[in-house]
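Predict structure. Input: AB hydrolase-1 domain-containing protein, 340 residues.
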Amino acid sequence: MGFGVVSLLNAMFRRMFTSAGLRPSSATVDVDADTTIHFWAHRSLLPSSSSTATATEQQQQRRPVLVLVHGFGPGPTWQWAAQVGPLSRHFDLVVPTLLFFGASRTRATARSEASQAAAVAALLTGGHLPGLGSGRHVVHLVGASYGGIVTYHLARALLRGGGGDVAVGKVALCDSDVTKGPEDDRALAARGGVEEVTELKLPADTKMMRRLTKLSFHRPPMYLPECIARDLLRKSLEDRREDKIELIKGMTTAEGSQLTPLPLETLIIWGEFDQIFPLEKAYKVKEKLGEKATVKVIPNSGHLPSQEEPKVFNRVLLEFLLQPSDSNGCATDVAAAAVK
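Output follows.
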């Protein structure tokens, strides 16, 4: 049955997260707006049930933190399952569930990638992750598709706010068109054969979901039984659909009018055959983000190289993150001054 397959996959992806040392949790990051973020984080970052670890031991256990921000589609456990294992060998991971996805919620009226970034920034800097306290902690940021657009704003929010115990490290944007404007939406709608891009990005039936899948993957699944497609749509894509439509309509990156260079080392990863955001957009993003940005193309992949070519994607990402920074330890302070 479709129910069994989707539930089994969900359990398998969650198991991959727990095997990487991550645990699910939640935090109310804005009491007035009743804003609650659900997230996965490495157990070392969460409140400890044991008081036996000394401050010295905690300091010795400290590793850089890596934040993974998901895009539209199924939840973060589905989107980052192939990454959490390899990445967790080098970093303590934080994987938030963005507002209006899963159980993350708010009563605030804002519907933009900037408001999403503000909520994640509050999670990182508001004392909700005790393992991030006691001295500055290097935090790298990675986002895919819509999550990459949120990540751009998250980096700037952390830099503007000084970051507290968070020292922003490197940034990776994966198939994320932060320069997207109305003409890009019209072109995507035309490729998908729809009037409005929201019809494609937020499919209301399995026919549209299959059309989106075909555009998203260079090598889409050859066969997906209808019962499984219906169950996947019901469990992963239909929830909070109206709020997600408002997120798409509320994006502030139109024509790059709000975009300024990012004063951090930034890797732009792009699928060679991306039909959602075509490859030429990667170089436009690089041009806008400035001299610290570089482009890496993942061959034989579409809009989701992290899923189509996970080994290549993970290698490219790790090479970038593990390479010594080309700037000194005061880079975050210098970058913060640059955005104020």
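Confidence is low (pLDDT under 50) at residues 51-57, 328-334.
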